[in-house]
């Protein structure tokens, strides 16, 4: 897919902006704090309806303004689509080709984007919560039904935790209530776990290959799901459901004591091994960075496999950290098939020979000129 134009109004430090004439490789050049990341973020927001930097949509609205809009014209295989998101202090609204969408999930996935930014190192180095967020965002982008189960799961989880927190009297109605929540928790939880395991299995195939390429064959990357119950490889829904229910009944007393749900997809994790060693604890900074990059690049292929089109690639401040050989490698791998947006503080930090044909945009104080 291809972004033909982008318009912003009252978005972060952009009052109004209208950009077109994007090429297949686009460089956004500017000093610090001028609005480069804001531009990439706006594209990602159009893909996901939310930012990678904040969960608070209000932060996207320019200081002192009451609403922001982000819109774009994109070219997909089946034709051109106009996307528009409007953020106000009351919430957000989405339009496709001018038509208001009742469900945001119908909007997500019309534009697909993969972003690689410095903070993605946290997928490897950070807490399990960061990795779950990674899984949820990426799977949700290509499978709207995943988001549905995730939302339902989270609702049930809150209710169930509330019940667990309530002083546990002798009333049997609470026991019955817990049974009801258990069933609903397991129903949605199992769908989430299954989709995550499938995603990881497919991602692994590409990530391993790409990682091997980047490291010149020296490193073998392996991804594995770390479940809070059952075997990592188990993907059969009926088996997972039974295991989840058993686990919940086994830990019932402990959960009541602690007042929270102790197993399920909200407690699961993802592990990376390089040549058999756990990357979070034993990987060097460079190995961790390469692992995160391989994951993101693998996603590009995975999305292509899933929907038959390549997503756009957003590289925020990361290309200049790679040596000229790797920059060239990266650009050449995707140049002809993936529209790419790259930010950097100066053109001199970008050495890849292929960047000579790129479209260059200069970003300064919320204004952009080509
Ligand atoms: P760097 O090279 O340091 O990464 P950048 O060009 O990527 O810089 P951005 O992250 O895009 O910079 O941010 C540019 C500016 O946007 C910052 O000065 C920030 O204060 C401003 N900004 C962020 N949110 C808002 C907002 N809601 N309203 C107005 N300005 C904002
Ligand atoms: Mg930035």
UniProtKB/TrEMBL annotation:
Domain RecF/RecN/SMC N-terminal: residue ranges: 2-352
Family matches, as Pfam families: SMC_N
CDD domains, alphabetized: ABC_RecF
Residues the entry annotates as binding ATP: 30-37
Keyword hit for Repeat: no
Protein name per Swiss-Prot or TrEMBL: DNA replication and repair protein RecF
Keywords: ATP-binding, Cytoplasm, DNA damage, DNA repair, DNA replication, DNA-binding, Nucleotide-binding, SOS response
Family: Belongs to the RecF family.
NCBIfam families named in the record: recf
Compartments, as annotated in UniProt: Cytoplasm
Gene3D superfamilies: P-loop containing nucleotide triphosphate hydrolases, RecF/RecN/SMC, N-terminal domain
Protein encoded by which gene: recF
InterPro entries, per the entry: DNA-binding_RecF, DNA-binding_RecF_CS, P-loop_NTPase, RecF/RecN/SMC_N, RecF_2
Role this protein plays: The RecF protein is involved in DNA metabolism; it is required for DNA replication and normal SOS inducibility. RecF binds preferentially to single-stranded, linear DNA. It also seems to bind ATP.
């Amino acid at each position: 897919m291809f972004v033909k134009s982008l318009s912003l109004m009252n978005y972060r430090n952009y009052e109004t902006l209208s950009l077109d004439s994007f090429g297949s490789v686009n460089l956004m050049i500017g000093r610090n704090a001028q609005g480069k990341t804001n531009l990439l973020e706006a594209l990602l927001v159009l893909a996901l309806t939310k930012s990678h930097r904040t969960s608070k949509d209000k932060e996207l609205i320019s200081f002192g303004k009451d609403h922001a809009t982000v819109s774009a014209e994109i070219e997909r295989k089946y034709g051109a689509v106009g996307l528009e998101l409007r953020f106000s202090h009351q919430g957000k609204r989405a339009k496709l080709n001018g038509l208001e969408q009742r469900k945001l999930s119908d909007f997500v996935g019309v534009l697909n984007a993969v972003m690689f930014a410095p903070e993605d190192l946290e997928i490897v180095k950070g807490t399990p919560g960061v990795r779950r967020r990674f899984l949820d965002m990426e799977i949700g982008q290509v499978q709207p039904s995943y988001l549905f189960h995730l939302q339902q799961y989270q609702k049930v989880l809150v209710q169930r935790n509330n019940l667990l927190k309530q002083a546990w009297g002798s009333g049997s109605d609470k026991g019955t209530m817990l049974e009801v929540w258990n069933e609903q928790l397991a129903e949605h939880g199992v769908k989430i776990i299954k989709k995550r395991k499938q995603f990881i299995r497919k991602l692994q195939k590409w990530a391993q290959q790409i990682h091997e390429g980047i490291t010149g064959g020296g490193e073998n990357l392996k991804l594995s799901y770390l479940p809070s119950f059952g075997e990592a490889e188990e993907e059969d829904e009926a088996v997972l459901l039974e295991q989840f229910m058993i686990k919940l009944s086994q830990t019932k007393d402990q959960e009541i004591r602690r007042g929270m749900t102790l197993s399920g997809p909200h407690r699961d994790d993802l592990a990376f091994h390089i040549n058999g060693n756990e990357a979070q604890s034993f990987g060097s900074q460079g190995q961790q960075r390469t692992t995160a990059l391989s994951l993101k690049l693998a996603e590009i292929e995975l999305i292509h496999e899933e929907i038959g089109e390549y997503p756009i690639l957003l590289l925020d401040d990361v290309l200049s950290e790679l040596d000229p050989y790797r920059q060239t490698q990266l650009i050449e791998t995707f140049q002809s098939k993936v529209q790419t947006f790259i930010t950097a503080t100066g053109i001199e930090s970008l050495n890849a020979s292929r960047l000579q044909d790129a479209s260059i945009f200069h970003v300064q104080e919320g204004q952009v000129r080509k």
